[in-house]
Amino acid sequence: MSKRITIIQGHPDPKGEHFGHALAEAYALGAEQAGHELKRITVAELELPLLRGKEEWESGAPSAAVRACQAAIAWADHLVIVYPLWLGTMPAVLKAFFEQVLRPGFAIGAAEPGKMWKKLLKGKSARIVVTMGMPAFFYRWYFRAHSLKSLERNILAFCGIDPIKASLIGMVDAKDNARRDTWLARMRRLGQAAR
Smallest Cα–Cα separation from 31: which of 3, 72, 11? Predict the structure, then answer.
């Protein structure tokens, strides 16, 4: 069954020459080969001002670029988020993207008295792909994948996205071509399965 997939490229470098870019392209290729529909968001190409207060986040008018990103996310059944681990978390531009795009009225709805926010993105799934310089097992074991868990629980699941799967790719600068090819093939398979 065909799915609608939106790939969110969260690398802050717009040149597109990093391994994370190749991983996103491999996923897209597999998805297209399997007949899935695709949209892409390249966060590095967006003009995203920082939000400075609660009122701006809750009731400020999103820019046309932010509204277009919201439309691509609303359209999708499945989201793929690709980014490098920087200082133990996602790059600042990707965090700014989530703050701008996942606003009340789009991602979450007003809570009734005594209840939690309404999760407006239910029915969507996600795959998070994180590249890093350290070994992936060390990030999971020693650091307990704290920033990944924050993205999963405090951002995506908070909006109703479920299930959420993750691919952690460590030692990217030390990978030889055979190891890179293995990861690219894995991403193509995940794209074909829309997982």
Answer: 3
Question: Count of domains in the chain?
Answer: 1
Q: What six digits make up the tokens of 147?
A: 């920033």
State the CATH number of the domain containing residue 27. Answer: 3.40.50.360
Domain that holds residue 155: 4-193
Output the tens digit of pLDDT for each of the chain's 195 residues: 899 999 999 999 989 899 999 999 999 999 999 999 999 999 999 999 888 998 888 888 999 999 999 999 999 999 999 999 999 999 999 999 999 999 999 999 987 777 788 999 999 999 999 999 998 998 988 888 899 999 999 999 999 999 999 999 999 987 788 999 999 999 999 999 999
pTM score > 0.90 for this model? yes
